[in-house]
């Protein structure tokens, strides 16, 4: 049964299914496109210039393997990741739920800060009122009687807005597109750690589960929906890829001219240099949209990991999500961005993907989880390779962070 009782049971509402899948794709994509996404893309473009195109392409291919595995297995099972984790290994689901909720809360503080900074750039709104206004808008979505549909529409509208604004800036900065395309396929230099960092920022932590849990909540589950679920997972990665590549081109047009980016705010300086004050204002809108959609995605997904672990959360999901947003905003307003906690949460976040992915791959061969579904061998093989790569990166990152705290 879906959240509105229309998608499953009786004649399937195909338009409703498509709407949910598009909403899930944009929810996942806009969850990935946050303040960190913008900064990361600007810094890496300045470092590798046109060769960064290959890093984007390689990360997108890896993202697709990861996302296909997770969405298909969760979609067929009809269970959320923490429930699958507990069936694979008792207690694993509790670890995933705790890690995702902790990471989601800490990163949400950064998302609230990004939304406040975006409003400050666009209209000069002071940071604290800007944070409160952005949080209030996100809360209104979850007060809506049909919060799932409201969330889907919100993610889609702001997702298209971000892509359109970045495209306009690309036209303005006139990047060397031919060189970028050439280096995307035949790079002059490759940085694999950068590739893996992009993967972590796109499908790491709670992000890949944002869309997967959304389709489960809407009842788009089971083998009958496998084709649509697979297409939805690819669409989600494609949306982030388009945004990342356009952002890369916009910034490339600035850095190839020899303009250094401001290390305090690399993407903002790129937009200002490339498109003047209007470009800077456009960046403010993009930053706000990226941050506020990430607030929505992080809050929804974090609580979705906790809701089946306690009956009170399951029964009062929307109010727990609102409380999550309020807590994130309150911490930002009173404490600011807790840098050391953000760093530590980032390291823990790096461990969520390999642990969650291996639990999904093990679940793919459990009849009590997926029934008679046969997971493609190539997906399993590629999935385990991704577990090894992301696990190595996660452990390396955590070790470095722990050394910093000594």
UniProtKB/TrEMBL annotation:
Q: Where in the cell is it found?
A: Membrane
**What GO terms are given for molecular function?**
cadmium ion transmembrane transporter activity; manganese ion transmembrane transporter activity
Membrane-traversing stretches: 20-38, 50-71, 92-109, 121-142, 154-172, 192-212, 233-258, 278-306, 318-335, 341-364, 376-395
Pfam families per the record? Nramp (PF01566)
User: Which superkingdom is the protein from?
Assistant: Bacteria
The principal location of this protein is membrane
Listed under GO cellular component are: plasma membrane
Which BP terms does GO give this entry?
iron ion transmembrane transport
The UniProt entry lists membrane topology as: Multi-pass membrane protein
| Keyword terms, alphabetized | Membrane, Transmembrane, Transmembrane helix
Spell out the PANTHER family in the cross-references: SOLUTE CARRIER PROTEIN FAMILY 11 MEMBER, TRANSPORTER PROTEIN
Q: What is this protein called?
A: Transmembrane transport protein
Organism equals Aminomonas paucivorans DSM 12260
């Amino acid at each position: 049964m879906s959240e509105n009782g229309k998608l499953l049971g009786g004649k399937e509402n195909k338009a409703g299914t498509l709407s949910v899948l598009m909403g899930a794709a944009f929810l996942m994509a806009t969850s990935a496109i946050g303040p960190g996404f913008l900064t990361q893309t600007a810094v890496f473009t300045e470092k590798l210039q046109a060769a960064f195109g290959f890093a984007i392409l390689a990360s997108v291919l890896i993202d697709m393997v990861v996302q296909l595995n997770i969405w298909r297995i969760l979609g067929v099972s009809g269970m959320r990741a923490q429930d699958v984790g507990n069936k694979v290994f008792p207690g694993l689901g509790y670890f995933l739920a705790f890690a995702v909720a902790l990471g989601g809360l800490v990163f949400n503080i950064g998302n609230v800060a990004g939304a406040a900074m975006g409003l400050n750039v666009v209209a000069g709104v002071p940071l604290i009122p800007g944070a409160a206004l952005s949080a209030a808008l996100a809360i209104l979505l979850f007060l809506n009687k049909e919060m799932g549909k409201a969330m889907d529409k919100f993610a889609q509208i702001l997702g298209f807005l971000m892509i359109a604004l970045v495209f306009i800036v690309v036209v303005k900065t006139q990047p060397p597109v031919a060189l970028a395309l050439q280096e995307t396929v035949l790079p002059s230099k490759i940085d694999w750690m950068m590739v893996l960092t992009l993967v972590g920022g796109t499908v790491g932590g709670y992000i890949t589960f944002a869309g997967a849990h959304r389709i489960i909540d809407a009842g788009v589950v089971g083998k009958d929906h496998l084709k649509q679920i697979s297409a939805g997972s690819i669409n989600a990665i494609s949306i982030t890829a388009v945004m990342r590549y356009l952002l890369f081109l916009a910034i490339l047009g600035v850095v190839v001219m020899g303009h250094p980016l401001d290390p305090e705010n690399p993407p903002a300086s790129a937009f200002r240099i490339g498109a003047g004050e209007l470009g800077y204002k456009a960046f403010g809108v993009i930053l706000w949209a990226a941050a506020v959609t990430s607030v929505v995605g992080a809050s929804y997904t974090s609580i979705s990991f906790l809701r089946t672990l306690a009956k009170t959360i399951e029964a009062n999901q929307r109010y727990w999500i609102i409380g999550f947003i309020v807590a994130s905003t309150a911490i930002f307003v009173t404490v600011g961005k807790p840098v050391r906690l953000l760093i530590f949460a980032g390291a823990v976040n790096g461990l969520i993907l390999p642990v969650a992915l291996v639990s999904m791959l093990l679940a793919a061969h459990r009849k009590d989880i997926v029934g008679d579904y046969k997971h493609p061998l190539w997906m399993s093989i590629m999935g385990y390779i991704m577990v090894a790569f992301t696990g190595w990166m996660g452990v390396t990152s955590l070790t470095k962070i722990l050394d910093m705290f000594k």
